[in-house]
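ok so heres the complex, two chains, lmk if somethin looks off
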Amino acid sequence: MSGATVPADISGHMLDLDEDEDLEVFSKNTSLADGNPMPNSPDSMVNQFRLDEENEEEQQGAINKDIFVTVDNPESHISAIETFITYRVVTRTTCSEFDSSEYEVRRRYQDFLWLKSRLEENYPTLIIHPLPEKFVMKSMVERFNDDFIETRRKALHRFLNRIAEHPILSCSHHFKVFLTEEELAPHRKLGPGFLSRMSDTMRAMANSVRGLRSKLEEFAVMQEYVDDFSNKMCSVDKVTHRIIKEHREYMDELKQYGPTYFQWAESEELLAEPLKGVGSCVERCSKETEEQIQHLSEFLVPTLHEYVLCADTLKAVMRRRDNIQAEFEAKNEALASRTTDKEMLQEEVDDLADRVEQANNALRGDWSRWRTSMRADLKSAFISTAAKNVDYYEKNTYKRDRGGSFDLNLNLNRGWMRYMTS
Amino acid sequence: MAEDVKEESVTSNDESDLVASDGSLNNKMLTEGSCLLRRMEICVAEAEKRSGKNAVSMQETYTVYLVETRPMDTIAEGRNPPPDSLWRRYSEFELLRNYLIVTYPYIVVPPLPEKRAEFVWHKLSADNMDPDFVERRRIGLENFLLRVASHPVLSNNEMLYHFLSKEHGWKEMLYETGFQAKADSRLRALSATFRVRSPHKRLVEIKHYSDGLQSHTSQLLRARTRVADRLYAVYKVHGNYGRVFSEWSAIEKEMGDGLQSAGHHMDAYAASVDDILEEEEHYADQLKEYLSYAEAVRAVCRKHELSQFELEMASQDLISKKQQREELATGIVRTFSLKGMTNKLFGQEAPEQREAKLSLLEELIAEGEETVKEKTAECNEHAEKAWADIIHFKDQKDKDLQEALINYAFMQITMCKKGIQVWNNAKECFLKM
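and the predicted structre for the whole thing:
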């Protein structure tokens, strides 16, 4: 019997209406556990990746992506109660699951949060690309500041596209609803209520206190990696921010430095040209530094930030997996000490065992997929940064070259003869 | 050592014969019209730390510099004799320079390297004993000697020659010239504020120019120091990438190698800034030299102003004496004076007294006229010579600073090329990730 994605404890919540779809997905998944790679499994994707590193993004897309999503056009909505931003979400798809080939809806951040939490519930051990963070007061950025909105928009765009690229998540019912329904509000009311979520959390806490009996070696290794990765990502992120800060201060000083040459040039005759030459090189340098900062902020910083958040996602995924295992172990223990109702309990235990199996497999499958895309993302971000730095130095060299070819012809007499005869 | 050199070229040992009226040395070494540097190779070869007791019997550590000289003709003949050498302290160089300033008030005397490290960016030591500072000072002192020895006027100076050849007793010789007293009185006079009625137009312009030069170079140097500080920070922070990449590579499989080598390049990048900024210090030193030169130019202008002022005072004095004479002679008081009042009140003096006064006045007037004539000549000569030397200075400045700026541009190009290399290497590593 294929396991349900819904927790066995069904007290007080409503079932997902389209559970069957999810079940189908999971039956596909169990065949994965047999080790037969599917056409769009992570393994074949990795092969594809190695073949053509240049167009890897496109290749991946060509294989399994038939949903293309864009997030743009932020608009603010002002109502009596609140002000918020909505984003336009446009979907183009050839997927047969969708009734139409094009959809356009407007969504606000809360809607994205909803989607994410549903996905997490339904696929607890899949690795879902992180959402941009909620607005944090202390960051001193205005909620409706253009840069903040733009950064968020890009991150939301990436979020949806990562889901669209994911072989399992892209088939999620909630995802489809998110992309296609005009009004999300009625759908948001359905699904596990607040109380059931509370009980889930409490059970999870209880389980974690009990601890796991035995953890598979591979997951222990994974956990260690996740912890280390999290540390490293935070460090890289911090160093990058520090670099940006230093660049900025360097640029500010350059802006003061350049004018000293021009000021001096005003009181010189023969030296005026060379002085102005050096001054304009310094000016150029500060402009290039500005561009460099811009590039870092636009490309490297968001990617690193996302992977810092990813590390947290991974930790949560590991926790959820552990909880599923703990639940199973708890019930299993209970079964061992029971004498009556053994049959029913056995069923539950079997259910849970399946769940554990599926959770582990899902994680395994997604793990290498995640590793690949992490590698690709960070690699391209670093390459882009390095390339930009090369470009920065090249532009400055060129400028210096031109500025350096001052008139070496020391026509000394020209200026002073004139002066002396005056 | 120095004795050999002397014997080769000195005709007599009597030093008084050697000195001409204008202080230049009658010596084959220093023929009129040619500069010392053509006859003699000079360099400041080394620096050494010494310890000793100073004037107030306190133990102190100081640095001495080895001044080496070699007569040019022996080199030209193919012989390669070892150079003559002696050790000098920075304070002795200062003494020489002060002497030259007093002796040649209309010459822009080349400056010494800075006494204390200024325009220091944070990594650079402000300690006078720091080896980098000492090295740069050695270069500056050599530069000073070369400039002085190639100056058309200064190179003929006897004290300069003795500085280069007579290790002991040079200071005493210097003090015997009595220049200290002149220096003190000049200093006092210059620091007083005085106004000149008819200033020398061109020299005033030069003074303003030198003020500008001073302020522009010091602004530039200050800004450059701050830029150097920031550049240092930018490079060094990348060293953190090196460390983190290295740690990160340990937990990654496929990405490990690429990350590790990229990390090494980041370390190299961070380390490269030390050489870059060390080189830039030479550029800063060249600018500092002209910052000090600006002061020297200003001093020449001020000294002329002082001469001019003294001339004007002398002229004023002469005029008032002549007026007094007229009054005495004619009995008509043109201007109000206490004498006039007392005369009116108490009656005029006896004719004999008047005669005595008149003849005294005549004497004073004759003296005064001589003084004015002398001072006028002195002033004009001063202005002429100063102007000539200032032209010479300006040419040199244009040439030197143009070269300095070009070198600076090349330094920056080199820095950029290094940067290109490092980041291309890093990119290669990232591609292998």
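quick notes: Chain B has two domains: 37-192, 197-332+360-432. thats all i got rn
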